[in-house]
């Protein structure tokens, strides 16, 4: 079985020390690490590691390590597989796959859920964005879409020191948006927990419907991507980024149109040229 699948489906509540152990175990190449070393990395006792394993339904830490090996061997298998062997690599098959994913998007994400997340962002003074390196293109596009509305954004890094330096200003007027595609970043549980402790809000965008993230974010937006399990583009998360921007805009169109016009005016003032249409 997959350890990450067990974590995703778990509903158990974890203590602060157990959360730290979980973050360590979600790192890379952990199957060969004994419980004592995991505890040392998490600044806790070995008994906490064993207790977490049993909370998740394992008989003990050795069984948990077996599932860690499953995750790592699966990851290695993915690296040698030929892309798009399931759905076909040709353009027509690729486009058809993305169209199917787009058509079912409203089935996974209701307008009510999108509007609720948009309202949270509308009421925030600062938005903090977090993702793994693989999702940076979508994260950066979402940050730019929000800045076009006049929202202040802070893009979080991935190293502990950089995360701490950028997240230290998070307060009750802030919102965290995080991407968890395929799997959640190891630091994400701590960030969501800290956002709640500071009185702010959190929004999680995932591609695993039914995903039960702990601690629970204020808003969980999940939608399947393409059907090919080995090759999934970021088309769906990108569309969600634009949909969020639109939903925020329509909460107060006059205000946000004025911001957009102001951005355009300032762009011209700073020497930016208007887009020049192509001519035949």
Q: What's the short version?
A:
This protein is an alpha/beta fold. The chain is built from 13 helices and five strands.
Task: Note down, in words, how this protein is organized.
This protein has 13 helices and 5 strands. The longest helix is centred in the N-terminal third of the chain and has 20 residues, at about 60-80. It is of the alpha/beta class. The chain is globular. Strand 3 (about 175-180), helix 11 and strand 4 form a beta-alpha-beta unit. A 5-stranded parallel beta sheet has the order 2-1-3-4-5, sandwiched between helices. The protein has helices at about 5-10, 15-25, 35-40, 45-55, 60-80, 90-105, 105-110, 110-120, 135-145, 160-165, 190-195, 235-250, 255-270; strands spanning about 125-130, 150-155, 175-180, 200-205, 220. It folds into 2 domains: about 5-75, Orthogonal Bundle (Arc Repressor Mutant, subunit A), CATH 1.10.10; about 105-270, Rossmann fold (3-Layer(aba) Sandwich), CATH 3.40.50.10490. About 50% of the residues lie in helices and about 10% in strands. About 30% of the residues are buried. Helix 2 crosses helix 4 (about 45-55) and helix 8 (about 110-120) crosses helix 12 (about 235-250).
